[in-house]
Amino acid sequence: MVLYFSATGNTRFLATELAKKLDDECLDLLRRIKESDFSEISSEKPFIICAPVYICEMPRFLSKYLQKVRLTGNSSVYFIANSAGYSGITGYLAKRIFRRKKMNFMGHTELVMPRNYYIGHYPVQSGDEIRRRILSAYNKLDDIAADIRNGRKLKARYVFLFEKLITLPFNPIWAKYKMPTRDFFASDNCIGCGKCEKVCPLNNISIKDKKPIWGTSCTHCMACIGNCPTDAIEYGDITKVKGKYNFNDHKHLLGDRSRGASQKDTDIPRKIYKRRKNG
């Protein structure tokens, strides 16, 4: 069974495509994370965890969830990181989590997808670069699926000690002090649909007078910005200048390659909104 969290669609795409290639089930963990639902998840096939990379690790809320949830049935687990170019110590942390759960860790690998985080100094990627990343990641899924199907371990680069020494203390400090919410706001395009509230993994958004209000607990996942059906959510002037990212705006770049992809996802029914194309 493929388990995943996705904010703006990159990881969802990789997880659902991989599940299709393996004829496996795919489960979006968003609802479970939001509701602190740690009830048992059982699978006859190996577990495959697909996760984005935030600050050189997997999202801290996802790490905490995986530590607590009970996974039964097959004891083997694979881990696939979706990064914008550097996965940091994500694979190392996944290995540590699942070995502590007495599971058979079958290795990890990294797939590079377009960046969804334009806040700060990060530049907007060109349409050509976005296309190159999506196609490259998609083409690597066949080899990953073959390894999993044949019970082979996934291989990734070695994580050096200095990476652990830098990231382990740095990540929680950055997550606590460098992810402010004061610059989020909804423009007059907001229709009060509540989509942003539904996709926030930390339950940090509430709707008041048909407008979103942000609390102080934020992971800067960009789910609220990237999934707004009317592009109403902004972050200061940054997103007005740089635009926003959602995988659905770029999936046409695959042509017919993923046509027919399906998701056996019982947790989160999804609508496809017509959105403005960026990049």
What attributes does this structure have?
279 residues, alpha/beta, Rossmann fold, two-stranded parallel sheet, 9 helices, 11 strands, 18% strand
Rg, Cα atoms, Å: 18 Å
Structural class category? alpha/beta
Most strands sheet: 5 strands, parallel
Tell me the fraction of residues in β-strands, as a range: 15-25%
Give me the CATH architecture of the largest domain, please. Answer: 3-Layer(aba) Sandwich
Q: Which geometry do the CA atoms define?
A: globular
The fourth-level CATH homologous superfamily of the largest domain is Flavodoxin domain
Elements, N to C (H/E):
EHEHEEHEEHEHHEHEEHEH
Mean pLDDT: 90
GO molecular function, one term: metal ion binding
Cofactor: [4Fe-4S] cluster
Keywords: 4Fe-4S, Iron, Iron-sulfur, Metal-binding
Domain 4Fe-4S ferredoxin-type: 181-210, 218-238
Walk me through what this model shows.
- Its cofactor is [4Fe-4S] cluster.
- With 279 residues, the protein is α/β, with parallel strands linked by helices.
- The protein has two domains: 2-164 and 248-254, Flavodoxin domain (Rossmann fold), CATH 3.40.50.360; 178-247, Alpha-Beta Plaits (2-Layer Sandwich), CATH 3.30.70.
- The protein contains nine helices and eleven strands.
- It has helices at 10-22, 30-34, 60-68, 90-100, 127-149, 161-177, 195-199, 223-227, 238-242; strands at 2-4, 26-28, 41-43, 47-52, 71-73, 76-83, 104-112, 184-186, 205-208, 211-214, 233-235.
- The strands form four sheets. Strands 2-1-4-6-7 form a five-stranded parallel β-sheet, sandwiched between helices. The protein has a two-stranded parallel sheet with strand order 3-5. A two-stranded antiparallel ribbon has the order 8-11.
- Strand 9 and strand 10 (211-214) form a beta hairpin.
- Helix 1 (10-22) packs parallel to helix 5.
- The longest helix has 23 residues, at 127-149.
- It is globular.
- Residues 260-279 have low confidence and may be disordered.
